[in-house]
Amino acid sequence: MDLPQVCVEEFTSSELNHDSSLVIRFGTIRIRISILEKNLASSVNIRTQYLQYLKVVGGDRDPQPQDATEDDFYDWILIGCDRHFLKLTSHAIPPKPTLHDFYNRKIYHLALYATPDDKFTLKDDQDNVSEFHSNHLDVFERLGHLWPFLEPCEVTICASSVEAAFSQRPREVVTDAGGRYFFKHNFVPRELETYAKIKQANLEQSRISRLCGLVGERPGRIVGLLLEHIGCGSVTLSRALERHTSLQLRNKWIEQVTTTLMELHTSGIVWGDAKADNVLIDGENNAWIIDFGGGYTRGWVDEKLANSIDGDQQGLSRIVTHVLST
């Protein structure tokens, strides 16, 4: 029997203790698993392994080449629990699911326990059943009027099948008005502030991602962002580069990213996380700068230069080196 696709949608860990939680999709079923250290006490081996995984997944130290990875941790949990997932049932899904269907379907709240024979078991956990994501009320009150506000039921998920629509976080969507967009779930207030600057600047010709609308249950309760659709098939600059990529095309991408970044800086806008994976290559081989959430990525921008023009310039320099040397 073919098992439904399993994927980890979200992982969070506590800053106060060693507890954590996973949000998992099993076919069209959504499962939130609470992992409390005390619930693993029956198995010394499982508890020890969990704490080791948590050091890497939680970012407590820099991973070494011999370390387990985040995916290893997820596989450890999923494989240990798959027999329990098969017992869960879903309910009818409309043929063209919307974001409302995605976020408001039944979710199982389960707690992970270890058994003395070093196995996992799952039990009902109704202690933490709240849902529905981002709030960001303050930034919405200041900037929300700049973009259309849509309810999740007005946004349809683009997918090849119903199961595919629920197998991962929605990305490509269509609104009732017919517009096609990229949907971004995870975002920070800085992103709205930067997109407001972009909207108010004269950057219509610049190849950058643009915010076109907000999606939420109600004003101030934002679920995600509707970003301008870039016809790229999720091809980043890193993925587009191949050994046989011509020098002419490489120079074109360098020139486009350099020019776009200069246009942003001239308007007082900082990119914030300059790296090759935040450059998309569209179907006409044009380079677009995306992701204005800020921060930095080790190896591209130094921490002390994060969210600054100097940091952007450092990231650009390393992008140029990457393009010419890959």
Automatic annotation (TrEMBL):
Annotated SUPFAM superfamilies: Protein kinase-like (PK-like)
Domain Protein kinase, chain residue ranges per copy: 132-326
Pfam families: Pkinase
Family annotation (Gene3D superfamilies): Transferase(Phosphotransferase) domain 1 (1.10.510.10)
Alphabetized GO MF terms: ATP binding; protein kinase activity
Protein's name in the database: Protein kinase domain-containing protein
Species this protein is from: Cladosporium halotolerans
